[in-house]
Amino acid sequence: MAGAVSALFFLDIKGRVLVWRDYRGDVSAIQAERFFTKLIEKEGDPESQDPVVYDNGVTYMFIQHNNVYLMTASRQNSNAASLLLFLHRVVDVFKHYFEELEEESLRDNFVVVYELLDEMMDFGYPQYTEAKILSEFIKTDAYRMEVTQRPPMAVTNAVSWRSEGIRYKKNEVFLDVVESVNILVNSNGQIIRSDVVGALKMRTYLSGMPECKLGLNDRVLLEAQGRTTKGKAIDLDDIKFHQCVRLARFENDRTISFIPPDGSFDLMTYRLNTQVKPLIWVEAQVERHSRSRIEFMVKARSQFKERRHVYTTLFQLFNSFYPRVYCY
Q: Which one of 36, 248, 259, 315 is separated from 117 by 20 to 30 angstroms, measured CA to CA?
């Protein structure tokens, strides 16, 4: 092998470190956080779903088994194929000891886990990876998980985000569209950049396995159907869906079709690159009278319709000589 591993990490599905073993002392636990940030950034890009991530001089190689990420971090030019094979052998060894490799089995067997990691890798180089050989000299009792045999997902048509057998006396669905407007204005009062960041938040209380459909006034769909798009269509950018959405159906006819999770979740997030009229126009004048006295004049003018209401407005005033000031 050309290079050695600096550390081996076990992470849960939220990126938190369950167990990690430092072999060479040239990385820290913060590397796991950086790795997971990079992983989240590449989550929506199918072309970048590779098991090797490079960032700031550190190469990360990882695999996922059940609800656990196994990840190595190395500052040397290591053999990626050998390390990925080693991670799969780690899974086989842990399954031999614990019956199944999951977050729960790691938490219940910290002592055995560290003994195995010390024997399977020495100073960053793989050593023993045969479970039978390791069993001859690591005889610490391990808590073995009880694995329940389940039929394949294709047979039951189950979905991981929703349990079966949910029942409600009254079926209800609540949909909220939450948008935030970001506007950058120069000193002359001209709008340099504006966009809208939005999210479709849902609360579902439905029985069984319901299939929901949602349509949008998306410009791409309306133009494909030969319908007019004047004033009613929008261009959605940076769309991100919940895992329950059937992406193939959306690519086909721009219909959001999904079996929703039970309770609250974000169905989708999006961004609109469009010229937005500020809801509240703010003009500020600053006059410095002396070294100990400064005068701010802030004028705010609402530009939304009369039937709309604003409950809380917050203005932040910044000055290099004075601390931050809040005005409600």
A: 36
